[in-house]
Amino acid sequence: MTSRPSADTVPVVGDQVRRVEASLTELNARIGVLAKVLGADLGSEADIEHILNREHAFFRVSAGHHAAVNASERRIQREWEELRGLLALRCDLMAQAVKELGLDTARQITLQVQARRDKEGLKPDSDGFHLRHRLADPSLSHPHGVSK
């Protein structure tokens, strides 16, 4: 006799997929808004790494301005830190989704989120979500596939 998942486990996975999709949608939207407001270039993975590692020009310039920082400059600093934090949170969310839901499900989530953004008329890379390009790579689903 083969064991089948109980009826209790199936909805949990569905709920988890919906939560991940909703979280990713919200994160991407806020990241896109902050990037636009700050004029942050999220066009490449390197751009995002510079922000995550505080190597972006803004962080280098603001590091030297500890003295008299006005309210506007503090707001901009907070927004850059928020952008950095949201990018890191999105990385963690996707790593956890792949771990818990599997690569194929994570791929489907990212494609659904991007399809929704496309319908809204948003530029595909306005949120800097380059992982979807890698997840769309069919070689990743093959057991011997090599990521580019």
Briefly, what is this?
With 148 residues, this protein is an all-alpha fold. 66% of the residues lie in helices and 0% in strands. The protein has helices at residues 9-38, 45-52, 57-63, 71-101, 103-119, 131-135.
Distance between the termini: 42 Å
Largest sheet: none
Rounded Rg: 18 Å
Shape call: elongated
**Mean pLDDT, rounded to whole units?**
79
Hey, roughly how much beta strand do the residues contain? under 5%
Elements, N to C (H/E): HHHHHH
Structural class: mainly alpha
How many E-type strands?
A: 0
Unreliable stretches (pLDDT < 50, length at least 5) are 1-11, 140-148
Helical stretch tally: 6
Folded structure, characterized:
With 148 residues, the protein is mostly helical. It has helices spanning 9-38, 45-52, 57-63, 71-101, 103-119, 131-135. α1 (9-38) packs across α5 and α4 (71-101) crosses α5. The longest helix has 31 residues, at 71-101. The radius of gyration is 18 Å and the shape is elongated.
